[in-house]
Amino acid sequence: MPEKPEKIGGAAPRERAESAAALYEGAYGALEETPKQKSQFLEILKRMSYSKVNVICLAIVLFFGLVAVLAPLIAPYGYADMVAQPFLRPSAAHLFGTDNLGRDVLSRVMHGAKYSIGLGLAATGVSLAFGMFLGAIAGYYGGKVDDLLMRFCDIIQSIPGLLLNMALCVAFGTGVANTIFALGVGGIAASARLMRSSFLNLRKAEFVDAARSISCSDARIISRHIIPNAFAPVLVQTTMNIGAVIMTAAGLNFLGLGVQAPRPEWGALLSGGRDFIRKAPWLCIFPGCCILVLVLSLNLVGDGLRDAMDPKLKK
User: Fold this and answer.
1) What local confidence, expressed as pLDDT, does residue 28 receive?
2) How far apart are the C-alpha atoms of 118 and 69, rounded to whole Å?
């Protein structure tokens, strides 16, 4: 007679294998059938699309961004080319007219988008990078480190923003790089305080304690666990700050302290056209309208992004 299968732990090997397979399916089968989670970025865009104002403003921002990137390819002329008679009114040949040297204003405005938007993005990036670093260190460690860094922020914020930017431009000189530095320094304190407040709320969270319990380093906890959860309010504020930086950059260039001629930054175009505002008002109207529309659209996009990322307003 064939021998009976040897039982281990009260069950035959085949029965034990079948029971283990059933246990695995019961434990993990539901996870495999769970639908994939939607991308958070796509979910935010979907919630923003509920508002027509958000969609229109986002389209305007993207339009200006494309113009800035593609200006060398799509502009009718170069920004320094003298192509017609001076002070020609807007017409089919020159949609925005010409300036005092016979340069096409439309081409100069299109090329100027590259400098204005580039200054806004670069300066905001500088202030965001340094502000996040200082705010993360202050919020995570607290104590004397927090006090020292916050007093540094107090010093920066005690000086009016435009006055600080003007002083830095005068001290370090004009030019694109120095203008980016001057604008970036002015925004460090606000970014640092916002990041610090987010860290103070998250540093005692359970997932941070769990990370410490498995001996994660401070750098890993900050970069992999806290910053991703603290970045939402910083992102919203950054979107709005880009518009403010573009306005400040236009003011510096209007005063002659930023990007220098012949680069056609929008503020510089306003400065160059103010002497001819009665004879050729289009020299100021078109650059001014571009600044107005872009900054307003950025602020409304930031407002819509804040609402879309607010968990209380999720549908």
Assistant:
1) 41
2) 10
Give the distance between the most distant pair of CA atoms in the chain. Answer: 116
252-277 in b/e form (b: 16+ CB < 10 A) is bbbeebbbeeebbbbbbbbbbbeebe
Dist CA 90 CA 113 (whole Å):
20
Tell me the CA distances in angstroms from 199 to 111, 141, 142, 188, 241, one per residue in order: 41, 10, 10, 16, 21
- Cα 190 to Cα 157: distance, rounded to the nearest angstrom: 8
Beta-carbon neighbour count of residue 97 at 10 Å?
22
Tokens of 36: 């994939």
> 282-308 vs 105-141: helix axis angle to the nearest 10?
30
Low-confidence ranges of the chain (pLDDT < 70): 1-39, 41, 310-315
pLDDT of residue 12: 52
Domain boundaries, the chain: 51-313
Q: Using DSSP, state whether 8 is helix, strand or coil.
A: strand
pLDDT at site 291 = 94
pTM: 0.79
* pLDDT (0 to 100) of residue 24: 41
Q: What are phi and psi of 90, to 5 degrees?
A: -55, 135
**What does the pLDDT read at residue 88?**
92
For 51-313, CATH number out of 1.10.760.10, 2.40.50.140, 1.10.3720.10, 3.30.70.260 equals 1.10.3720.10
What the block records as the tokens of 152 is 């540094």
Q: Which residue's entry shows tokens 């434990």?
A: 27
Q: Are 153 and 134 within 8 A, CB to CB?
A: yes
Structure tokens at 279: 């004879």
DSSP string, 158-188: TS-HHHHHHHHHHHH-SSHHHHHHHHHHHTH
CA distances from 194 to 22, 125, 228, 247 (A): 51, 15, 14, 22
